[in-house]
Amino acid sequence: MRASLQTVALLAAFFVTHPAQASSLGPEFRGTTALADTKRAVSFGERPSGSAALEHLRQWILGELKPLGGQTSLDQFTGQTPAGPVPMANIIAKFPGTSGRAIAVTGHYDTKRIPMVAFLGANDAGSSTGFLIEFARVASKMKHQDDIYVVFFDGEEAVGNWTDTDSRYGSRHLVQKWTTDGTLAKLKALINVDMIGDKDLDLSNDENSSESLRASVKAIAEQLGYTKYFRQDRGGIDDDHRPFADAGVSVIDLIDLDYGPNGSYWHTAQDTVDKLSAHSFQVVGDIVVELVKKLDAS
Predict the structure, then answer these.
(1) 8 A C-beta contact, residue 219 and residue 285
(2) Taking the domains of the chain in order of start, what are their residue ranges?
């Protein structure tokens, strides 16, 4: 992902409200399980697109999704990268509803290939991987009218320097696929998560996210007592939600770019599991579950 300087500047967080509890109705998201799944994902090693390690991780994810009863598929394609063609595959789990509408919860599972650096990507993208597996478990037990898609994007990371054509390969591909098969027109919203496991959680206020969804998330955070985990400064973030936003879908990106002192853990060997917290997964999980419930009821 890429952000403006305004986004990554350290400014005041939202005011803190008194803690509240997430809705007790329906299945609950478990931050401890999401963290455990993140650690398992990281154990596969460096996981750039096209690597054997990412294929091993992919098969493990598919194994975790299989018992949940959804419709799981691989969206295979070839990314045309500056280093040449790279085989890639999005993982899509669909939990069907009856309304004819859909909600997508997404994130990426590939890590950036960084020469001379043992980059394990615990937060980027281990945290989104673990988060999505746990959310899929919740979605499989949740009462819902809309189709719920849980999508693991391949190829979010740039092979070289981030550009519009060297980045977000999986999300750009899926926009095209879903435009063709009609799924895109059914989407009420897309919720993307990225780098959400940081112990010092500080979620960005993204101007490239839809205003209505930002307002909904702010209201949910206030209800749950989570406003202290959100930044007040605004800035634009380029992430897997952007291709969908450009295609007219309502989107929101939940991401913490302030990872380590002055962002010093991002894309370095310091992005390790000891920097993560089950509580951060819980905060984001509670918010996403409540947002999906609200969208499903609308």
Answers:
(1) no
(2) 2-297
CATH superfamily of the 2-297 domain:
Zn peptidases (3.40.630.10)
Give the C-alpha separation, 294 to 298, whole Å. 6
- The DSSP annotation for 44-61 comes to T----TT-HHHHHHHHHH
Among 95, 183, 196, 74, CA closest to 139 = 95
Nearest Cα residue to 276 out of 129, 76, 164: 129
Q: Find, among 117, 44, 51, the residue nearest to 79 by Cα.
A: 51
Cα distance between residue 269 and residue 260, in whole Å: 12
3-state helix vs strand vs coil in the chain, percent to 5: 40, 20, 40
CA 273 to chain centre: 17
Give the three-state DSSP class for 212.
Answer: helix
Nearest to 193 by CA among 274, 291, 261, 272: 291
Q: Fill in the DSSP letter of residue 16.
A: P
Mean pLDDT of the chain: 93
Pairing of strands 147-153, 187-194: unpaired
pLDDT tens readout for residues 79-130 = 999 999 999 999 999 999 999 999 999 999 999 999 999 999 999 999 999 9
Helix, strand counts (H, E) of the chain:
9, 10
State the pLDDT at residue 3. 56
CB-based contact 219:195 (threshold 8 Å): no
From the list 84, 68, 82, the residue with the least C-alpha distance to 150 is 68
Three-class secondary structure of residue 36 per DSSP: helix
Sign of CA dihedral 223, 229, 137, 277: negative
Q: Give the amino acid at 277.
A: S
Mean pLDDT of 159-181: 98
pTM: 0.92
Beta partners for residue 191, in sequence order:
105, 252
Residues 280, 35 contacting (CB under 8 angstroms):
no
